[in-house]
Design a protein that fits this description.
By secondary structure, the protein is α+β, with helices and mostly antiparallel strands. It has helices at residues 4-17, 41-46, 134-142, 148-153, 163-173, 186-206; strands at residues 23-27, 51-57, 60-65, 71-74, 79-83, 93-99, 104-109, 115-118, 232-236, 239-243. The protein contains six helices and ten strands; from the N terminus they run αβαβββββββααααββ. It binds a DNA duplex (14 and 14 nucleotides) through helix 5.
Amino acid sequence: MPELPEAERARSLIERRALARRIAAVDDADTYVCRPHAPGEIAAALAGRRLTSAHRRGKSMWCETDGGPMLFLHLGMTGHIAIDEEPEPHGWDRFALEFEDGGRLALRDKRRLGRALLDPDLDRLGPDAGEISRDEFRARVGRSGTPLKARLMDQSALAGIGNLLVDDILWRARLSPVRAANELAEEELDELRRHVRAAIRDAIRKGGAHTGQLNPERRPGGRCPRCGEALERGRVGGRTTWWCPAEQS
DNA sequence: ACCTATGTTGATAC
DNA sequence: GGTATCAACATAGG
């Protein structure tokens, strides 16, 4: 489920439950999830250390350690963080810290598109979608001829918005996903930013990007929760897109 | 069986 | 440079 709201919940969970616990062992055997590290590299770097802080920008998380490298975590498409739970019986724990006190932190990810690695390069990640300033939003979103939906999902422009959240945001803002981003007037961009922030705030509170009002209608036969019009389905920026043709322009 | 779908990201080709 | 497409992964469903 992971978009920005899920990542924030995961970060908060790590902050509340995993900091300051001494790491006794690390399971970094999955060479795909832990690429480019060889098995044992992350383990060697983190054994005996503690996580000291948990950070997030967009969907990316990283933890500082006491004297060691930074640990980067990404939930991919199906990942979540499980703390002090029994190991997943199907082997879906792709990476884990085992604490000296007997507990553990696992990156549990059926589909294996999540990541765990050391000392990440975050240079190509835009500012967090929930924190971005008005001026920066105008500049980063509004100066591209690409479809609005694709621009909002471009993690190098602004970080954190995924496929479910973006459809909800554009529906709230009554904007068409295919409209060119640079067609929007400054006031429209400011208004859009308000909806971005509100959608993120609501989703974090309610538990995830799937809790948006539009989400239950993203299916054949789905209707606009406001006006009742049949939703349209299409492909924008390579992703399945649902919108209200009557209201969103 | 085979085709499609799925919350992400990166490489690649134009 | 930007934009679109495909592939990486694994599973579910028609």
